[in-house]
Structures are given as structure tokens and as C-alpha cells.
Amino acid sequence: MTETDLRQFVDPELRPLLDRLGPASLDISSLPEARAKRQPPPGMKDNLPALTTARLIPGMPDEPDVRILIIEPAAVSEKLRPAMLHIHGGGFVMGTPDSMTPTLRRWAVELDCVIVSVDYRLAPEHPFPAPLEDCYAALLWLAENASDLNIDAKRIGVAGESAGGGLAAGLALLTRQRGGPALVFQNLQYPMLDDRTVLAKPDIPGCGAFLWTPEMNVFGWKSYLGTEPGGEGISPFAAPARASSLHDLPPTYIGVGSIDLFLPEDLSYAMRLMQAGVPVELEVFPGAFHAFELDPRAGVTIRSSVRRLDAMKRAMLPLCSD
């Protein structure tokens, strides 16, 4: 089927977004331009009562410092707040936390929480484990500085989108293995979890046809892994779907579109989490392709945003009751 034929499976409200963005492609030659396009526009402001601060924190031993954004409600709280470590998306090869700042500021206010978003090193210049180690350094810093941030170190969750969702899932596995700070939830939006997807041909009409294609997926995984994806010996901390055990992981929310390339791997991961006794909330949005939230006015984006925020609120707010 041609791309025109496949558009019948796309939510009608999302089709204009495809016209605006044009054909989806990404490789090493187009990566600099793609990175530049993901930079937030200058002068982006809102009237939300939230504070945003950028700072450098220590990386892991023998690793460089890590830039983070700290986003918190402007109002002083007499109670300890919950906290969230946020990890941005971008196929492991592009993106910054700054592009997510409007959303994160809204989350901070509506959830009354402190958010730390990680500006982790990008592949292919910095393949695995560098990006994940940056995220782990931020998690350690968040827990160790709980008192200064007015947060409860026992009330930290992790959230991410796309590759950021994959890094969030990998981080949950890593901190479990290292005995690091315990997470109270993981909120994964169309997470990039399984490099073996490059070996599979999508068997759902329209799946993977838009925004993040199988060809782009090969490039993203190869850049992150530093080797051909889909083979033997890939670390489960890089590709969480390869983990042999998903026991003792935190309650999980997974949201994904019905024609997202990652739908099969996300459904499989959700099922395995449930089989391991992990509470899972799964949302599949009809007619939504990868990164559909680039159109904030579409009804499916609004529904997704509401449900994702509600899941985080339910994971956080009961913990705030003393």
C-alpha cells in the first residue's frame, strides 16, 4: 500500500500534521538539521507559577558533568513534594529537555511536584551506556539532594517519551540492579524498548508508516548501541525488552498509538510486566502514529495528555498524604 492508502488508518485530525512535516527520514547526513529543528524557539514564555533553573551536576565517576533542568512550583510548600526524573525523546540521537519545558512546567504546577529533566549525551557521538549513565547520575543527585529540593527521596518516579521512555525503563532496571534509589512509578510514552523490532516487519496496517519509520529505527538503534541492532549480546539496560526478569519494578503507565512502530514491543512489555506482578496501566490511542502529540490541538493528543497526567497524579498524590 502507498502512503496515501495508509493514511486511511490515521486519525483525521492528525493528517494535517503529516502534510506540514513531510516525509519522515533520518540518517547521519540529515542529523544536524534534524537536531537544529528540535531546538525550542527563543523567547518561549508562559504565565504558569513555576520556576525553571538550569545547572550542571556531577556525572558518574570519570564521566563529564550533566546538565539538568529543575522545574518546580513557585509557591513554597510546607510539605515535602514528590519528584519526577524526566527523560526526553529523540531516537537517542537528538532532542533536549528545553523543548519539553512548557509541558514540564504544566506538570510541575498541576502535580505540585519537582521535576528534573536530563540533558543526557546523545548518540552516535556518545553511544550506550553514556546516555543511561547520565540519567542514573541525575537520579542519584535527585535523591541525594532531596532535602535542599524539599522532596521526599522515597517519592521519586521517572517519565520519558520515545527513546526517553526506553531510557526510563532501562533506568528502572539499572537502579534495581545497583540497589540505587527506588522508583515509585515509571510513566512511559510510546517507549523505544526493543532493538529486535528492526528484524520484524510490521503486520498492522499503517504501523510504522509515519514519523518514525523502520529505516529510522535502524539508524536510532545502531547509533545508540554502536553496533548492528537485533543481534546477540545486547544489554537489557540498553534494550529493556531483553531483560530476563521484570519483577520488582515500579507501577507502570504505557501510552502508545495504534499505528506506532513501537506498538507491538510496548504491548509485549506491558504484558510481561503484568505477568511479573507489576501494576500496569496501558492506553492505546486509535489512529495515532509515533509522536502524535506534535499536534497539541488534536483530540487524541488532548485525551492522551489528560490520561497521562491523571496516571501520574494518581501515582504521586496519594503519597503526599501524611
Output the radius of gyration. Answer: 19 Å
Global outline: globular
- With strands numbered from the N-terminus, the spatial order across the biggest sheet is 1-2-4-3-5-6-7-8
Major β-sheet profile: 8 strands, mixed
Query: In percent terms, what proportion of residues is strand?
Result: 15-25%
CATH class: Alpha Beta
The beta-strand count equals 8
Distance between the termini: 57 Å
Helix-residue proportion: 25-40%
Q: How many distinct domains?
A: 1
Keywords: Hydrolase
Organism: Acetobacter aceti NBRC 14818
InterPro entries: AB_hydrolase_3, AB_hydrolase_fold, GDXG_lipolytic_enzyme
Region (Disordered): 29-49
Describe this structure as you would to a colleague:
- With 322 residues, this protein is of the alpha/beta class.
- It has a single domain (3-36, 50-320), classed as 3-Layer(aba) Sandwich (Rossmann fold).
- Helices cover 33% and strands 17% of the residues.
- The chain is built from ten helices and eight strands.
- It has helices at 3-6, 15-21, 31-37, 101-111, 130-144, 146-149, 163-178, 214-225, 263-275, 299-316, and strands at 50-57, 66-73, 81-87, 114-119, 151-161, 186-189, 252-257, 280-285.
- An eight-stranded mixed β-sheet has the order 1-2-4-3-5-6-7-8, with helices on both faces.
- β1 (50-57) and β2 form a beta hairpin.
- α5 crosses α7 (163-178).
- The chain is globular.
- The protein starts with a helix and ends in a 6-residue tail after the last helix.
- The mean pLDDT is 95.
